[in-house]
Structures are given as C-alpha cells and as structure tokens.
Amino acid sequence: MFRIFDLDFLHVSCTGPPCLPFLGALPFLPLKHIHLAMAGPWLRKYGPVVGIVMGSSPAIAVCGPREVLQVLRREEFVGRPDNVNIRERNFNKRLGVLFTDGPFWVEQRHFTIRHLNDFGFGKKSVEEVILEEAEVLTSELKEQKVVQVSRLFSVPTINVLWSMIAGTRYAHDDTDFKALLHHLDFLFHSGSTLRILTSVFPILKKIAPEMSGHKKVMKSFNELQGFFRNTIHEHKLMLEENNPRDFMDVFLRQMEAESSVENSTFTEDELIILCMDLFSAGAESVSNTLSFCLLYMVLYPQVQEAVQKELDTVVGRSRKPCLDDRPRLPFVEATIAEVCRINTIAPLSLPHAPLEDTELNGYTVKKGTPVIISLWSVLHDPEHWGDPEVFKPERFLDVNRKFVHDEWLVQFGVGKRACLGEVLARDMLFLIFSSLLKELTFKLPEGDHEPSTEPLPGITSAPAPFRVEVAQR
Ligand code: HEM
C-alpha cells in the first residue's frame, strides 16, 4: 500500500494505488470499469476513501457506500473541479451548469430547473411532446420485424430535449440532426476517453494534437457550439415579448431583462454551453437506460409479461399511457427502477470538489481537489440490497404490491448537485417504456446469442449492440 501523506504539494493525504513519477497511478488503474475496482479491491485494500494521482494531479475516490452518501449530502463538497480541459470546452471560461459552482451555478441551475419543469412551453406540454416521440417510434417499430437496439432511442430522446430547448423536432434523416447526433456520439464515446488522456497529459495537445485526438474533439465542440449559436440567432429574430416558445426564448428574455446588469450570468455564451450541458448529460443517459430496459425485457420475458398485464389492466388498449397513471402502475415503476439500479447508467457521479479545505474520514482534502464518487457502490451494496447482482423488480414493491422508494436508489445522485433533469428523465423513461410495451412485445431473434448485460466502457454505461424481434400485440 502506498501512502502519500508526505506529498503535501499534492494536497491529498490518504492511501491509494502506487504512484510513479510523471505517470502517477495511471499504470495501476484498470483499463475499463474503474467503478468495479473502486467497490471491490480498492475498498478492501485501501478503505472507503482512496487517494489517486493522475499524472501529477491528485484526486480522491470515494468507494464506500456510506461515505458516498455522506459526501453527496455535505455542503462543502458541492463544488466542481476547474481545469484547462473543461475551460477549453467552454470558451476558456467557467460556464454552463455541469462544471461551474458558487453563485453563478446556483443562479443558472435554479433558472434551468424552473423552466425545464415548466409544463407550459408553447402549445404543448412536455408530456405531449414525449408521447408524440413515443408514438412515432412505436409506429416505426411496427413496420419492422427485427431491429438493432443500439442508438434506437437517440432520436426520440434528443427530439424531446430539442423540443423543450429550441421548440422543434427533427426528422431522422435531417442533415443538421445527423450532424448533431454524430458530434454528440463522438464526444461521448471515443472523445471522452481522449479527453481523459489529454487532461492527465496536457502536453499531448501541443505536441500531438492530431494523434491525441485533441483536434478532432475541439472540432466537434466547435461544430456543436456553431449549431447552437445559429439556432439562438434564429430565435432572436422571432422573439416575442409575451409568448416564449421554448427554453431558448425564456433565456433570451432574461438576457434582455438583465442587459444593463453588471456581470449578469445570462449571456449568449452561457446559453450555448448550457445547451451543450443539457445534451451531454441528458441524451445518452435516457437513451441508454431505455436500451437496457429492452435488453432486460428480452432476457426476462416473464417480467415483460407482468409489465404488459399491468398496462392492460390500468391503461387498457384504447388510449395512451399518461403520467397520471403512474401511481397505479407500481410494477412498471419497479421494473424501470430495477433496470436503473442494476445497470447504473452513471456508475460514477460527475467529479465533485470541496469549496474549502475540509476533512473526509479523518483525511485532509484541499479545496478544488477532484472527488470521484461511486454511485455504483451504493446501488450494488450487498449489505443493503442482499442480492444486488440479481434482476428483481419486486425488491421495490411492498407486501401490498405498492411501489416503495428506496433511499439507496441514487442513480440520479443525491443532494444539491443531484441530476438537474431528474423529473424530465423519469417522465421520458416511464412514458416511452410503457407506450412501447403496451403495443409491442420484444424477444430475441431466433439464432441470436443471448446478449450480455455487461455494459460497454464509457462515461455512461451502454449495452453492447443487440437485436430484438418485434411483434405487435
Ligand atoms: C436516466 C437518466 C439520467 C440519469 C441516470 C442521470 C444521472 C445524473 C447524475 C448521476 C448526475 C451527477 C450528479 C452528481 O454530480 O453528483 C447528473 C447530473 C446532471 N444531469 Fe442527469 N441524469 C439523467 C438524465 C438527465 C437529463 C434528461 C438531463 C437534462 C435535461 C440531465 C441533466 C443533468 C445536468 C445538467 C447535471 C449536472 C447538474 C449539476 O452539476 O448541477 N440529466 N445526472
């Protein structure tokens, strides 16, 4: 065990994986699924709070479930780390909501939550927008016999977000839309791994901008920013005083109202980065969770049947499901909750950072030190769940078969930094999943291997590509 007590310049003082000059602990980190190492060998070997050195930068990994809940609830850990890589994405400033903190973040987060949860955009409610996307997808699936599930939910998810943010939906073959999908996809998959590499070794950006992928990553950021900037300019031309059509309109009106306020947080650059944040945090997470839902339906046909039976009894065949049905669909809720738990979409929260020097488990943690938090350890704690590796929606039902919320179901995080889109995400998961299952049954195509539940490595978990056979009910 390597102790880094004495390396005061690293601002950490706890135990963790060995640390080499220049490389830090990198050679000793697992190549994929670091959350599994955190909740297993690291927890056993180093304890619930672990020090890691990435290159020459220190970080803290919180691996023990109780410590995770404690850190997420503690006010002083509500900050985010600040570094050149993040600033490069954000016009070399601290902008948006994902990577900001302090009064700037409080103001922007409150504004965004208030207006994203505002069900009065334009003429349609959010519920209607989601149901429309679910209907388009259901009709498309009815036309097909066998479908490839990876990316199946990207279009409906992005369309819901885009409808709320910019008031429009896209046809699947729209060129702008395809470009948007391409850049989001790249940044989320290969782009995110490349960003970790260049954040640990920033020199690579200068000496090998092509090889390190830095140039390609920056190109995708620029394209996305350009796309959002163009849409904002179109909105400015159509802006009406008393008729906000979408989130962009509401933001632009606030920008106008604060045009003479010194240091107002409402600027065009902020709106662009906010859009990037909402897409980065919202699109993949919902779309991957829905893919996992289908995966578990084909692996557990008896669960699929029970979901459909409940939908038939409560919703019937003649109308669409709606949000008001939710309390009467406990098994549907329990199934979605169990998919979220077992295939934790964000095994690690976004990195937190203490706003001031503080202590954790007896260790000193300096202001600004990145704190990596394992949500996975809470969602898979054997003591709490008993059999965390078993897919069992019933664990969320009480003796009267009512849905019971479990405080350890923390897939959206906990505390002040918890997911900003939680309400919207829950609505999308519920409405899209129940709309599909009401109309269609999914099974493995004959001859296909049973797909694995092991997620592909990445910032968010995604299932490996698999196919389903679709049958109309
Ligand atoms: C199944 C879907 C989703 C899951 C599991 C999820 C999960 C999470 C988690 C774990 C965090 C980090 C919490 C932390 O740092 O402690 C987070 C943050 C965030 N999420 Fe989500 N999320 C989902 C959907 C969405 C959607 C649809 C949106 C956008 C509308 C969204 C927007 C955000 C934003 C902006 C943050 C950063 C909040 C902040 O730093 O203040 N998320 N989410």
Automatic annotation (TrEMBL):
Cofactor(s) this protein cannot do without: heme
InterPro entries documented for this protein: Cyt_P450, Cyt_P450_CS, Cyt_P450_E_grp-I, Cyt_P450_sf, Cytochrome_P450_fam2
PROSITE patterns: CYTOCHROME_P450 (PS00086)
Record key words, sorted: Heme, Iron, Metal-binding, Monooxygenase, Oxidoreductase
CDD domains: CYP15A1-like
Family according to the record: Belongs to the cytochrome P450 family.
Name under which the protein is recorded: Cytochrome P450
